[in-house]
Amino acid sequence: MQTSEALKTPEEPRGKKVHAALKARLGDDIYTSWFKTLDFDGFDGKTVTASVPVKFLRNWIQSHYIDDLLACSRLEFKGAERVDVQLRQPGGQNLRVIASTAEPQRNDVSGLDHRQPQSPPEQGARPSPVRGTMAPSPTRIPAGGVEGSPLYPHHTFENFIVGAPNRLAHAAAVQAAETVMNGSPGINPLFFHSSVGLGKTHLLQAIAWEVRRRSPHANVLYLTAERFRYEFVEAVRSSDPLAFKERFRHVNMLLIDDLEFLQGEKTEQEFEHIINALLDGGRQVVVASSRPPGHIERLNERMRSRLQRGLVTEIGGFDEDLRMKVLERRVAEKKLVDPSFELSREILEMLAQRLTENGRELEGAVNRLHQTWQHVRGTLTPDIAETVIRDLVHSGGDQRRIKIEDILRVVSRHFGVSKGDLLSQRRHRSVVWPRQIGMWLAKQLTARSLPEIGRRFGNRDHTTVLHAIRKIEGELNGNQRLRDELEDLKKMLAH
Fold this sequence. Notes:
The protein folds into four domains: 16-96, GMP Synthetase, Chain A, domain 3, CATH 3.30.300; 122-128 and 137-314, Rossmann fold; 320-392, Orthogonal Bundle (Helicase, Ruva Protein, domain 3), CATH 1.10.8; 404-494, Chromosomal Replication Initiator Protein Dnaa, Chain: A (Orthogonal Bundle), CATH 1.10.1750. 47% of the residues lie in helices and 9% in strands. The protein is built from 20 helices and eleven strands. The chain has helices at 16-26, 28-34, 55-64, 66-73, 167-179, 200-214, 225-237, 241-247, 265-280, 301-308, 320-337, 345-354, 359-376, 382-388, 404-415, 419-423, 429-445, 450-456, 462-476, 480-494, and strands spanning 39-43, 47-52, 82-87, 95-96, 139-140, 150-151, 190-193, 220-224, 253-257, 284-289, 311-314. Helix 9 (265-280) links the parallel strand 9 (253-257) and strand 10 (284-289). The longest helix is centred in the middle third of the chain and has 18 residues, at 320-337. The chain is globular, with a radius of gyration of 24 Å.
């Protein structure tokens, strides 16, 4: 068999049946928005190769419509088992990416580090790449021999949009950055908390960039809680835990993100020792979490009390005024690379009124509308805009829509197992139990059917999912600890 058979004949363009099936299955609006520019390039008997001109389209199709695309492809390409959506490069080869399975390559090979945050930046501060442009690469800044988590170049104070909900947090962050090298930090420790997408990570990284700008030789270390755990575990594995602690003695400022994900009794103890040593030595500590210190169950009372001695400030949900500012900034960023792009005031007001969750949601809406505009090359009407962002709109304050991918990520983090293990055929209890909890959460929190849940958990039969659900339901009777644990997982997913 040839590696790729020709698909196009003079009588019938390649993929014609697939396009017709997609339009019938999903409707004209969805088809026009996401599949109109999809080309079919090859079929080797098992894998259909398709391509789109824009990275955003590829990612969206892989995340939301890959099952629909495969089902429709089988109508034309008999025996197809998968579809690879590639990025079509102008004048060059397609960039092959299987978005549903591909993970970023890192120099770190430990199974702990693969969980570095891959979500879009807080507040939507980093513009998405557009044709002919490259997004700035994140930078790791080591301090004292410890390699920090990635810092995004766009996460600066200049790019942070200030409004009533975040004004106090912003002012405190600026003060911390200005006073850290004075020998007597004004606010110490400084603790930010909020739900996702409201600017915690942006503020922490802005502090790091500002201190580096003011004092290039300052030892500033930004770490996620997961990265801290990774560095500590590596030190234990190399029988050098004392050297790990020693590295932090030379840090002028320590910034810890996502504290709620700190795991492991020994890791928590080491974290407490280091924070106490830094605070006692007059070194600046800044922490961010989805919850205030008093609500983080993994912290002991001593650590909670220590973190509460400084300033604990909440970053509130965006009001309509701040949402408008965010939208206007995102449109302005798009116009820098695409000057003809325009959204009417009416559309912006509609977005600000309906998208109330966070900055990421607002950025996603602008990204979608820009991609839609690139296709139509004409004025976007409010009706078109409403159609494009329809699935982002929340009604009556409902919680955000939870995806099985979210459940896999949170369960993986909570139990300290990899996503690959959850999807594998491993039968060890350390993997089976988290997998069963994940299936139970998927049934409770999503509208997915049992067969669909089974497919998303490593192509398992629906009877396996049913067994897992019944297993968890049986364990819940009289098990208050399990009920509390499940409630905690639900809270993580809600944020």
